[in-house]
Write a structure and sequence with these properties.
This protein is of the alpha+beta class and about 250 residues long. The chain has one domain: Deoxyribonuclease I, Chain A. Helix content is about 20%, strand content about 25%. The chain contains 6 helices and 12 strands. It has helices at about 10-15, 20-25, 80-85, 115-130, 165-175, 180-185; strands at about 1-5, 30-35, 50-55, 65-70, 75, 90-95, 100-105, 135-140, 180, 210-215, 225-230, 240-245. Strands 3-4-2-1-12-11 form a 6-stranded mixed β-sheet. It has a 6-stranded mixed β-sheet with strand order 5-6-7-8-10-9. The chain is globular and about 45 Å long.
Length: about 250
């Protein structure tokens, strides 16, 4: 099974540039989790998938969706946090043997002004995970880089949003619940990133951050065949993460 997670930074623009259709034709994923779709209406072209959406109340903002070849047993779109749920940041698909979560964690603000909201959302996710009884895949733009390997300029970012000690500790909490960072299970290299700031030729110079993940239950780690960040896939300031599992 192949799962792809991608902050698409606007579904309509990605569709117009054919970057989404290119991703699908080149990788043929079984499940595609998209974050920051920035739309409020269902699509016409579903590429042969079943489609599930969670739109933000505000038009052209946030939102997540999932393409899946297999229909789930159950779909949940609320995490239980009013502001978060109003921004369309969560989808859970339950299957017979596993659960797929697509979640778009808030940025937090350049001056950390939204950190209380960000931490509240993460804590709600941690609370949810504790009650789940099946294996889990979490596809996410987590808006936090976990380790020094995950930020090009880590030395100047220790106290900044997306790399503060407090934020990084939240990923430690997530992993302590029996989840693993699928990419780090098979690759310990630095200089592998999923998002590059706009300007300064950051993507070409690989001045990036790895803030997009597919976390999996520890019981699934031996099933991981491969995990890659598809840097050559354009259409967003983020690139997709692709996980192959047995």
């Amino acid at each position: 099974m192949k799962i792809v997670s991608w902050n698409i930074n606007g579904y309509r623009s990605a569709e117009k540039s054919n970057s989404l259709s290119e991703l699908i034709s080149l990788n043929n994923p079984d499940i595609i989790c998209l974050q920051e779709i920035k739309m409020n209406e269902e699509i016409l072209e579903n590429y042969g998938y079943n489609c599930y959406y969670n739109f933000a109340e505000k038009r052209g903002y946030s939102g997540v969706m999932i393409f899946t070849k297999r229909k789930p047993l159950n779909v949940i779109s609320k995490l239980g946090l009013d502001r978060f749920d109003g921004e369309g940041r969560f989808l859970l698909l339950e299957y017979e043997k596993f659960i797929v979560i697509n979640i778009y964690i808030p940025h937090g603000g350049r001056k950390k002004e939204n950190h209380p909201y960000k931490f509240e959302a993460i804590n709600k996710l941690l609370e949810l995970i504790k009650g789940l009884k099946k294996d889990i895949f979490i596809c996410t733009d987590f808006n936090i880089a976990h380790t020094e390997k995950d930020v090009k300029n880590y030395k100047t970012n220790y106290h900044n949003n997306m790399f503060s000690y407090e934020e990084r500790s939240k990923i430690d909490e997530l992993l302590s619940l029996g989840l693993v960072d699928s990419f780090r299970e098979i690759n310990q290299n630095g200089d592998v990133y999923s998002m590059w700031p706009n300007g300064f030729n950051a993507r070409e110079r690989n001045m990036g951050w790895r803030i997009d993940y597919i976390f999996v239950s520890e019981g699934l780690k031996d099933n991981i065949k491969d995990v890659n960040y598809l840097k050559e896939q354009f259409g967003s300031d983020h690139c997709p993460c692709a996980l192959d599992v047995l």
